[in-house]
Specification:
CATH topology: Rossmann fold
Number of domains: 1
Number of strands: 11
Radius of gyration: 16 Å
Oligomer: single chain
CATH class: Alpha Beta
Structural class: alpha/beta
Shape: globular
């Protein structure tokens, strides 16, 4: 399907898939969405801790890059794993304006390394930040009690409902350690029911700009 680079309302870019009319990030603000959903309602819960993170949908690398930046402020040690079945192209990566919009010119090499490093190999981005990209279908994830936090950032239910199924959320539940958390921009009733069915306790949170609500799910 044809893809194009578009600017979202906060000035940051994203990829638009024209056949689906679906974007990798919110049209209301790619950076704003990442900061609100994954940092404010996820990463910030673990200040001053060492944690492991699983990202479902590495995509443009925005969530991983913001996590790298914010983890320094939060005094965290991170082991980050981003899963992506269909990597974005090199041309798409260089079209993203996240470095300038985040005032992160000093860390531009980190963003490049995230995209240029080998798949399925752990690298050290900083002494306190380990990073791995897995080229993998979400249905093939079989981790057991490995992660403290999951960023669930799959394409929307309307275009890929199978990624929001009970079987996928069972894998997410299994992958989390006890007392851990999954955050997602989604707030559909069918998604909540699937999460609850596998054992999550689900909170409805205020959504990012342009979206009224989002979910945070906890493993007991």
């Amino acid at each position: 399907m044809k893809r194009s680079i578009i600017q979202t309302r906060d000035g940051s870019t994203t990829i638009h898939i024209e056949g689906w009319d679906e974007c990798y990030h919110s049209r209301f603000g790619a950076i704003q969405e990442a900061q609100h959903v994954f940092i404010k309602n996820g990463l910030s819960l673990f200040e001053n801790k060492s944690i492991s993170i699983l990202e479902i949908g590495f995509g443009t690398g925005l969530n991983a890059f913001i996590t790298f930046l914010e983890s320094q402020k939060l005094n965290q040690t991170i082991d980050y794993v981003g899963v992506e079945a269909y990597p974005v192209s090199a041309d798409e990566v260089v079209s993203m304006n996240y470095i300038s919009k985040l005032n992160a010119e000093n860390e531009s090499e980190i963003f490049k390394k995230m995209h240029q490093c080998n798949w399925n190999e752990q690298i050290i981005l900083r002494a306190d930040f380990l990073f791995t990209k897995r080229q993998q279908f979400f249905a093939d994830i079989n981790d057991v009690e490995m992660f403290d936090l999951i960023y669930f950032d799959a394409f929307g239910f309307d275009v890929q409902p199978e990624l929001w199924s009970t079987s996928i959320f069972q894998k997410m539940y299994d992958a989390l350690k006890p007392k851990s958390v999954l955050v997602t921009y989604a707030a559909r009733g069918v998604v909540k029911r699937s999460m609850i069915e596998v054992g999550f306790t689900v909170e409805k949170m205020e959504g990012p700009p342009g979206k009224r609500e989002m979910f945070r799910a906890k493993k007991g």
